[in-house]
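Q: Hi! First time doing this. I have a protein sequence and I read that you can turn it into a structure. Is that right? Here it is:
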Amino acid sequence: MNRENLLKQLDGEPLWDLIVIGGGATGLGTAVESASRGYRTLLLEQSDFAKGTSSRSTKLIHGGVRYLQQGNLSLVLEALRERGLLIRNAPHLVHNLSFVVPIYDWWEGPFYGVGLKLYDVLAGKLGFGPSRLLSREETLRHIPTVEPDGLRGGVIYHDGQFDDARLAITLALTLADLGGVALNYLQVTGIFQENGLVAGVDAMDQESGRNYRIKGKVVINATGPFVDGVRRLVDLNAEELITPSQGVHLVLDGSFLSGDSAIMVPHTDDGRVLFAVPWHGRTIVGTTDTPIPKATLEPLPLPEEIDFLLTHASRYLTRHPVPSDVLSVFVGIRPLVKSGGKGATASLSRDHTLLVEISGLVTIAGGKWTTYRKMGDDTVTAAAQVAGLVDRPSVTANLHLHGWQEGVATDDSWQVYGSDSADLELLLNENSAWRELLHPALPYCKGEVVWAVRHEWARTVEDLLARRTRALLLDARASMDAAPLVAELMASELGESREWQEKQVADYCELARGYLLL
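A: Yes, that's right. Below is the predicted 3D structure, encoded as structure tokens:
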């Protein structure tokens, strides 16, 4: 993916149909929706694709059992439909995962059993499998490391699992396949108007420092927890739309959750759902829901959040994790839309909100990964009206994403590449050394670094270790050890100097230390 060639498409003051600001789930989904309808589409991201929350989710494509408890059936119904569509359109990235609710009190079996049957009904033909009650013995077969003391049985149900950052890169590749342009490290610094209406954006290339004035028929603000900052580029007095909340996840060794299922605890002390989920050979435990005053690109966990997760994990797992067991801790910020009351953020809706400002700026806020496609559909429909574009129907419900491939084994380390895995194999044949692992504790080889630079917009060591691979989340210390090798490989591809390598390694290690507890 030649960045210089992409930047050249900004020269000569072309007029874009839609300019999308934000390269997370919402922005990428919106841009794919736009390009699939035949609109000339440009997406700009100030950092890297999925740099923020979109690479730090609980790794689930789900209807939302908790929203069912809240009685928000419309959101659950929409999410379950989108879940079913996504596993059809990206089977190389999304797969069925069974979840078990362990039962310790007599009333929990009937209570959760009935609720999850409703979940099945709402999913309809797009369901992943029926829920059912489990005996104590069956429960222990599915989740052998669950706390057996007092265990009566369980309820099993099905939801989807995915790799969030890899889906983001796949959407960027899909956008390119459709003729759209996506650029990372191009920060929008201003939004200009003509005759009182938004007419485009000013942007700066973070690498060269060059400034661009880019014209568009409509501009879409899809920047997640940062939407209010973008809105104030047009209206300094814009009222806040977002109430940010952070969710913390701990990554443990896979042995903490042996078996073939995840654990779901429907109600913790703070009213949240707690998950223990197998992912890439590790166990993810999460999540918290803590209101924060301001969104940042690199949020940090609070000590009380760590204590909360370790305490609750110890209640339900036979092995009681301690801080030294944590391989990585990651934090995502939920862009929750403000409600009228002052309730806890755990009770705020994950519905999305679409706002068309008087200036013509279109803002999409809220939502979650599962419903990214529907958010994009709604946003582009509104934006096309603002821009006066020819009305065209959505086709993304049946659009296969880049790399679409059926029948890939979920334990295949190259599964996330889908049909591109064949080309990756050809690349590795060019140099036998590229098959060597980056680190013995990580499942990634040298050739994947070369692939990410050439085909996936990777520009920094962080891009490679945090999002093109998931090394930072799987084992933060091991990823720091691998950083010098990654920098050397990237520098060879990008034509960068030894000084560039040293700075990249230093910057990455400083960031990665924030993912360590000890």
